[in-house]
Amino acid sequence: MRGEPTLAEKRLWALLRGGRVGGLKFRRQAPLGPYIADFACFDPRLIVEADGGAHQSPEYDAARDAWFAANFFKVLRVRNEDVFERPEAVVAAIQRITGRG
């Protein structure tokens, strides 16, 4: 786990924490198998990843996403720019995927 979240992760956490999106409960930097999810919701099973410079490679992300999918998690990757410039679109995407609004 990283000691300090990125600015995008801080902003995304401000949107997600405390059940602010449809009552969903998210955990940040959640260890899952061999990976750390930026944000994990266990009911329903959703991983939200803030995509920025910290991601290692497309191949690594694909393997990671495949592991999450094999363990029944949906993965939503959001661009850091969207977290800052279009937070309502990020929230709408989470609501659309989970069916909660």
What does this 3D model show about the protein?
Strand 2 and strand 3 (45-51) form a beta hairpin. This protein has a single domain (7-98), classed as 3-Layer(aba) Sandwich (Endonuclease, Chain A). By secondary structure, the chain is an alpha+beta fold. It starts with 6 loop residues before the first helix and ends with a helix. The longest helix is centred in the middle third of the chain and has 13 residues, at 58-70. It has four helices and four strands, in the order H-E-E-E-H-E-H-H. The model has no long low-confidence stretch (mean pLDDT 93).
List keywords for this structure.
single chain; 101 residues; alpha+beta; Endonuclease, Chain A; four-stranded mixed beta sheet; 4 helices; 28% strand
Mean pLDDT: 93
Using only C-alpha atoms, the radius of gyration works out to 13 Å
Into which percent range does the helicity of residues fall? 40-55%
Compressed to H and E, one letter per element, the order equals HEEEHEHH
Strand order of the largest sheet: 1-2-3-4
CATH superfamily: VSR Endonuclease
First-last Cα distance: 30 Å
Overall strand count: 4
By secondary-structure content and strand pairing, the structural class works out as alpha+beta
Main beta sheet, described? 4 strands, mixed
What ranges have pLDDT less than 50 throughout 5 or more consecutive residues? Answer: none
- Hey, roughly how much beta strand do the residues contain? 25-35%
CATH class: Alpha Beta
Q: What CATH architecture label applies?
A: 3-Layer(aba) Sandwich
Q: How many separate domains? A: 1
If you consult CATH, what is the topology?
Answer: Endonuclease, Chain A
Number of helices: 4
3D shape: globular
